[in-house]
Design goal:
single chain; about 675 residues; alpha+beta; 8-stranded mixed beta sheet; about 15% strand; globular
Length: about 675
């Protein structure tokens, strides 16, 4: 049976389109439910009618797709917490003044220099029941009051909305959190919270207890901290304590995927369990025992690792693969993947917009689809060469599939990824087996010293290899401009090329050539779009002034930062350059007057001086000038006042009040983000 003939393929595709429709074109849940009800009734009637009248089969298929689309759209809305009346986002007073809040700690996040960070579930605000996930930032202070998963805590604080990206083309952390149904954060010190005597003992509590027990037993065994943090990431998916230097090494070497528990890790675990269960005969009863053992083991692994979304996705995926193998449906592995995608998104539709979810499935799909074709190109007789060739083909298949997505999201490409994967796979295989054994020991007691030494040295070796590969920075291509047009046309070219390579024909070659033309059109359209771009940006950069004027691809930079004048390298500026295919033409010190597209911008700096005769369209205030804004407005008559982040917060509040009285718009980059002129 061909993959596309499987009914669930069409159902899943329309289900995904429904989720996308609901995400980008929001609708009311009531309207969708009515449409879904009508679709369901039509589906039911046509299901029975088409059995007797074959002419209705086509109409039944269309109705099925429409119903799947509606289910997808409704599923996303059902899982959007902000649409629920009980969600704390509707408690406006909690965002204005301090309120008494009770919440349950659910998940530990990576700490920063100032705070320990957790995801918590809100229980009540001022004794009124509310729900929803929130990030709790607890200040690191001298008071030793440990907070653990499952703790019910009471505190008094003001909720703060997540801040969106304040500069162009930057990662939008607020949107990322909103996709995880987290709409606010709160900040509190340990002395301001009271912890209930009894914790909420659910599966997350016991998972947290198990994880702490493992950590304690590993520390007792004198496991080196740096290697232990990598071990916890490799085996349990806990990346919270890994240093930024180690993470950068893994990024530059193309091995970031092994720090996040994914299909690779869960696949190793399943292979290890299969190896242990090999003595059990492949009878019907024996096969069932193996399946149950694998499912229980994978579920246990998910609990030990903290039930993180990435682990749950991989566990669900491989649980379906194991079930498919048990049912002797290994030939329909694509169908198994589709079932896992459908069910995962049915319960967590926002996973579709998670980069990890996208990369996991696209990489696995290309390994299953493309790797056998690459493998058949050459069949070496030497076993060592055969192993290297198989590792290379798996690596290339995964990278070809993930390549456009990586460029689109991360704008960089590690050129030595194939070297990394060939070298680390044997080491990683040993680490995974040793790690599983060590973690099982650590659940019950402190692991034997010889096991710890072996495990620690193997991780040290892995880190050393990764660091060595990452040291060849010239092979790491960074700051690659890549937009949505490129993403779509690159995937069209890759997919049509593989189809043609698999079974060449004239019509398939025509499709390949057509996608090449489409790719060229995307290049031409992007170039034309870029060349016609004319805009000025006033950035939000703390204690600094940064302005860019873009005309086509060339950008002129105006700044108060002397370092940027000589070396215009800045993460804020870099994001803009990469996202807009731009290059810096010249850098200048900030001038008092700028002209852009027929508009006059007058800049008042810390001196506070200006000329009355100037009649600017925009007044930009920088470096906290001491001035009477009432007089400035009366003398200059600007259409808008803009204040960047080089000004103090208190003085900006005064300026805003003054502008409100005069009915003149006031734009603070600290509050509203960058200011754009085009």
């Amino acid at each position: 049976m061909k993959v596309l003939d499987f009914p669930l393929v069409k159902i899943t595709i329309w289900f995904l389109l429904g989720i996308l429709f609901s995400y980008y074109l929001p609708n009311t849940l009531f309207n969708l439910c009515i449409v879904l009800l009508i679709g369901t009734i039509d589906f039911s009637l046509l299901y029975f009618s088409s059995k007797n009248n074959k002419k209705l089969i086509t109409l039944f298929g269309i109705t099925t797709c429409f119903t799947s689309f509606c289910i997808g759209a409704a599923t996303l809305l059902f899982h959007t917490d902000s649409l629920q009346k009980s969600n704390y986002i509707h408690c406006t007073k909690a965002f204005e003044t301090s309120q008494t809040i009770t919440l349950t700690i659910r998940e530990k996040l990576k700490s920063n220099a100032y705070n320990d960070r957790f995801i918590a579930l809100i229980n009540s605000i001022n004794n009124q029941n509310y729900t929803g996930k929130i990030i709790v930032n607890i200040a690191k202070d001298s008071i030793k009051k440990s907070v653990i998963i499952g703790n019910i805590i009471k505190l008094k604080a003001t909720l703060q909305h997540n801040s969106n990206a304040k500069n162009p083309n930057q990662f939008d952390y607020g949107k990322y959190l909103a996709d995880r149904q987290i709409y606010a954060q709160l900040y509190v010190s340990k002395s301001e919270i009271s912890i209930a005597k009894y914790a909420k003992k659910d599966i997350w509590y016991y998972s947290g207890c198990l994880h702490r027990r493992i950590l304690t037993n590993l520390e007792r065994a004198h496991f080196n901290a740096a290697e232990m943090n990598v071990a916890l990431a490799l085996i349990l998916g806990q990346q919270q304590e890994i240093s930024s230097d180690i993470i950068q090494d893994y990024q530059y070497s193309g091995a970031t995927h092994i720090l996040s528990v994914s299909g690779l890790h869960v696949g190793f675990i399943m292979l290890f369990i299969n190896f242990i269960l090999k003595p059990i005969p492949n009878t019907r009863k024996g096969s069932f025992i193996k399946l149950i053992s694998i499912l229980i083991s994978l579920a246990g692994f998910a609990v030990i690792s903290g039930l993180s979304p990435s682990v749950l996705r991989s566990v669900v995926m491989f649980s379906f693969i194991a079930t498919g193998n048990h049912l002797r449906r290994g030939g329909n592995i694509y169908h198994t993947l589709l079932v896992s995608i459908f069910l995962i998104l049915l319960f967590e539709p926002y996973f579709l917009f998670d980069v990890g979810f996208q990369l996991s499935y696209i990489a696995l799909f290309f390994i299953l689809w493309l790797q056998p074709l690459l493998k058949n190109i050459w069949t070496p007789k030497n076993k060592v060469l055969l192993y290297i060739w198989e590792a290379l083909t798996v690596s290339f298949a995964a990278q070809i599939g993930a390549f456009p997505l990586c460029l689109y999201y991360f704008h960089q490409f590690p050129g030595l990824f194939f070297v990394t994967n060939i070298v680390i796979i044997p080491v990683l295989s040993f680490i995974m087996i040793a790690g599983i054994i060590v973690m099982i020991f650590a659940v019950f007691c402190s692991p034997p010293e010889f096991l710890i030494i072996i495990f620690e040295k193997s991780i040290y070796l892995l880190n050393h290899i990764i660091h060595y590969v990452a040291s060849f920075e010239s092979f790491v291509i960074i700051d690659i401009s890549f937009n949505l047009y490129y993403l779509i046309t690159f995937y069209l070219l890759i997919i049509t090329s593989i189809i043609c390579f698999k079974k060449p024909s004239y019509s398939k070659l025509v499709f390949v050539l057509t996608t090449i033309i489409l790719l060229q059109i995307s290049f031409i359209y992007t170039k034309k779009e870029t060349e016609n771009q004319l805009e000025m940006i006033i950035y939000n950069l703390k204690k600094k002034t940064l302005i860019t004027e873009k005309s086509g691809k060339t950008i002129e930079l105006f700044t108060s930062d002397t370092a940027l004048l000589h070396d215009p390298k800045n993460y804020v500026l870099n994001s803009y350059l990469v996202g807009n295919f731009g290059t810096i033409k010249a850098t200048h010190k900030v001038k008092n007057t700028l002209f852009f597209n027929g508009k006059k911008i007058f800049i008042i700096d810390s001196t506070g001086t200006y000329q009355n005769k100037i009649q600017p369209d925009i007044v930009l205030l920088i470096q906290s000038p001491k001035l009477n804004l009432d007089r400035v407005l009366k003398d200059l008559h600007p259409k808008i006042i803009v204040a960047d982040a080089s000004n103090s917060y208190s003085i900006q509040k005064k300026w805003k009040k003054t502008c409100d009285k005069k009915n003149i718009p006031f734009h603070s980059t600290s509050e509203k983000g960058y200011y754009k002129l085009n």
